[in-house]
């Protein structure tokens, strides 16, 4: 990156009280500067990047280990929490969230050998407990109780992975719910842990051999001198033999040296085919394979160098390839391993008008999960591709993948919607018979809610779909508080699902809205690509148009509108605040990316270059910098009141984004800008229920205070 730097450091200012020509404030909302946030030092730091002067007045807040930064964080967090605790609705909201979230619930069971595995949440217990039954009717035994792994609750379970015989268990533990994890092994016959301990398991999903003698996994170094943004380039595929120290694990595939590339490994159920996956962002992947039965020592390409995604499932003597090659909404090919050349692939399931999200083999059938207009549909087909049946679903909502085995008929799936709490169904793949296996009963009458799916034009005329949920007993009113949330990136689909947050908002007379923005996967790969890299501005335009549509159709007015998003959705919120400060009165921005000029230098930033572009490249910088929220905050603008939500152990999106943007908004805007920092928490927050309830209560109380006083 060509730079000519100008460093003239000056003494900084407090979050300044600035004036502009605002709309009249809502009655009951205090918007004065007589209670300013803690002081923040401001630098006169400007760099010329690709011939563009770029100001960075809060560069010093990037260094979290600096004592000055630590003191600033503590002061900001104390300031925010003191004021959040005093909000008038806060305690009542927390109590209501407790009723909705502190419940008894159970996951669908899956079995390996004769052992059944599942989780159960108990009312009054902070974390779900992992259970084991030896036989379907066996006695329930505690397998892992995460509540007892640490005195402060900071140790989390990041997945359990039994071998096929149900004899051994690999499980991952993480501190502070961060991505970084360690693998441990347990002998399920004795209940004792083995001496095997594998560090560097951040991206590891153990792929067991059929005999349970070992597993393949992705390993990352734990050397603290390696920047987190460089770690993926050091990822190796290794094989661990049970009973041997991890230091003896053999390297099956060396590191690529490319930090923007993810590496994955899979093994066929019969142990013959070892697959190596190289994923280039969220738009293409390469697949290599080894025939272990034939004694292959090198990986051979199955499909490499094409601009498409390939997921391969091996069963019996065939590969089933789920791909968007030549089909933005995906299709399925059958591949004979004896003739694996691309030209010999057989089209099994053609592209449809719905988006084919995934493929499973359960009960000797293909089970295909579709999104039809952003809600779930499931189709069962024979292994030859012939149609068998649609799996009946209760309505417009989201169904999980099936929990089952490829050679067994019985399977389970969960379903929820905006108006239906999670239900688990048992189904027979052979007959289609389906029955309700478990239902979560919550203290809420969802018949009072109505769900609409509307369409509105974005800035360029593209029609965008949006789910709008409101109370049936309340007429449309521009005085209703509305909460608009979105994501718009990485091919992530926003589909209907039950939400305690939405219930609380609706019970306060509000409207809850979720648009299907470009950048997501709801309408296939073309929809995703229309919201990434040089097209990222489309996502922000879609979201702004959603806000206007809610107002124009009488659901709310701008003074009653709150916006919310996390991670890439936090970038969405930040960009919307900066580009359209008049659209919303309040915003909650969680674990976000906001300094898009320097994002690649922190956290897992380099892995997102395929999605956002590389600011080191002048061609990419030309479209990244204009929307980078941190760099376009203007003093004197009345931005929405903002609650910034950060996590102290976020090793995915560096919290420097939250710190720098909060300082900018505090300096520029008259409205409140508070920074709340979650302790012992990673990118997904803490896994302790009381912390989740507290965070949600603070967020909803803040937003409602500003849009529904």
UniProtKB/TrEMBL annotation:
UniProt-recorded Gene Ontology molecular function terms: oligopeptidase activity; serine-type endopeptidase activity
Catalytic activity line of the entry: Hydrolysis of Pro-|-Xaa >> Ala-|-Xaa in oligopeptides
Domain Peptidase S9 prolyl oligopeptidase catalytic: 497-707
Family membership: Belongs to the peptidase S9A family.
Source organism superkingdom: Bacteria
A Pfam short name: Peptidase_S9_N
GO biological process: proteolysis
InterPro entries documented for this protein: AB_hydrolase_fold, Pept_S9_AS, Pept_S9A_N, Peptidase_S9_cat, Peptidase_S9A, Prolyl_oligopep/macrocyclase
Keywords in alphabetical order: Hydrolase, Protease, Serine protease
Cellular component, GO, one term: cytosol
Protein's UniProt name: prolyl oligopeptidase
Matches recorded under Gene3D superfamilies: alpha/beta hydrolase (3.40.50.1820), Prolyl oligopeptidase, N-terminal domain (2.130.10.120)
Domain called Peptidase S9A N-terminal: residue spans: 37-438
PROSITE patterns: PRO_ENDOPEP_SER, PROKAR_LIPOPROTEIN
Catalytic activity, EC: 3.4.21.26
């Amino acid at each position: 990156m060509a730079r000519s730097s100008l460093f003239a450091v000056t003494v900084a200012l407090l979050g300044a009280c600035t004036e502009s020509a605002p709309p009249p404030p809502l009655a009951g909302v205090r918007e004065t500067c007589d209670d300013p946030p803690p002081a923040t030092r401001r630098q006169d730091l400007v760099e010329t990047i690709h011939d563009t002067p770029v100001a960075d007045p809060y560069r010093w807040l990037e260094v979290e280990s600096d004592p000055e930064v630590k003191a600033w964080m503590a002061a900001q967090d104390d300031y925010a929490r003191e004021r959040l605790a005093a909000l008038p609705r806060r305690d009542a909201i927390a109590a209501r969230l407790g009723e909705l979230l502190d419940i008894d619930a159970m996951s669908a069971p899956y079995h390996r050998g004769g052992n059944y595995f599942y989780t159960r949440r108990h009312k009054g217990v902070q974390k779900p407990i992992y259970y084991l039954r030896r036989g379907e009717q066996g006695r329930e035994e505690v397998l892992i109780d995460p509540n007892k792994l640490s005195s402060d609750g900071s140790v989390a379970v990041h997945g359990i992975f039994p071998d096929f015989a149900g004899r051994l268990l690999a499980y991952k533990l993480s501190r502070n719910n961060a991505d970084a994890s360690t693998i441990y092994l347990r002998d399920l016959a004795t209940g004792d842990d083995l001496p095997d301990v594998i560090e560097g398991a951040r991206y590891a999903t153990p792929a067991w051999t059929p005999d349970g003698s070992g597993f393949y996994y992705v390993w990352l170094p734990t050397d603290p001198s390696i920047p987190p943004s460089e770690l993926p380039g050091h990822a190796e595929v290794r094989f661990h033999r049970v009973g041997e120290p991890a230091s003896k694990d053999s390297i099956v595939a060396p590191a690529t040296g490319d930090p923007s590339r993810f590496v994955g490994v899979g093994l066929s159920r019969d142990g013959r085919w070892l697959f190596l996956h190289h994923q280039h962002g969220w738009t293409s992947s390469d697949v290599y394979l080894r025939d272990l039965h034939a004694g292959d020592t090198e990986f051979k390409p199955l499909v490499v160098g094409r601009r498409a995604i390939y997921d391969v499932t091996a069963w019996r003597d065939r590969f089933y390839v789920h791909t968007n090659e030549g089909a933005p909404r995906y299709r399925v090919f059958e591949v004979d391993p004896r003739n694996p050349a691309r030209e010999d692939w057989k089209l099994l399931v053609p592209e449809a008008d719905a988006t084919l999200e995934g493929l499973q083999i359960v009960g000797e059938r293909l089970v295909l999960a579709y999104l039809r207009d952003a809600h779930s549909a499931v189709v069962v087909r024979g292994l030859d591709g012939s149609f068998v049946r649609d799996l009946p679903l209760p309505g417009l909502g989201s169904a999980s993948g099936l929990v089952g085995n490829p050679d067994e008929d019985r399977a389970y799936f969960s379903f929820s919607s905006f108006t239906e709490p999670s239900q688990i169904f048992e189904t027979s793949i052979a007959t289609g018979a389906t029955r309700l296996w478990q239902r979560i009963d919550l203290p809420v009458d969802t018949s009072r809610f109505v769900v609409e799916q509307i369409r509105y034009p974005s800035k360029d005329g593209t029609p965008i779909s949006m789910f709008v949920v409101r109370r049936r007993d309340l007429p449309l009113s521009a005085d209703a508080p509305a909460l608009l949330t979105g994501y718009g990136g990485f091919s992530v689909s926003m589909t209907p699902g039950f939400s305690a947050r939405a219930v609380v908002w609706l019970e306060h007379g509000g409207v809850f809205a979720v648009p299907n923005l470009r950048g997501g996967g709801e309408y296939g790969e073309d929809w995703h690509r229309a919201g990434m890299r040089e097209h990222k501005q489309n996502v922000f335009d879609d979201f702004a148009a959603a806000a206007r549509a809610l107002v124009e159709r009488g659901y709310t007015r701008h003074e009653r509108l709150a916006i919310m998003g996390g991670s890439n959705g936090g970038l969405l919120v930040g960009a919307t605040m900066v580009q359209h400060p008049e659209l919303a009165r309040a915003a909650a921005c969680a674990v976000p990316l906001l300094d898009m000029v320097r994002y690649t230098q922190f956290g897992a930033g380099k892995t997102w270059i395929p999605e956002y572009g590389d600011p080191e490249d002048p061609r990419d910088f030309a479209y990244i910098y204009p929307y980078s929220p941190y760099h376009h905050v203007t003093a004197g603008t009345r931005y929405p009141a903002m609650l910034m939500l950060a996590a102290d152990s976020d090793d995915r999106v560096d919290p420097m984004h939250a710190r720098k943007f909060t300082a900018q908004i505090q300096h520029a805007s008259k409205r409140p800008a508070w920074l709340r920092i979650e302790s012992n928490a990673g990118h997904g927050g803490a896994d302790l229920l009381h912390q989740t309830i507290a965070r949600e209560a603070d967020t909803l109380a803040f937003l409602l205070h500003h849009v529904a006083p």
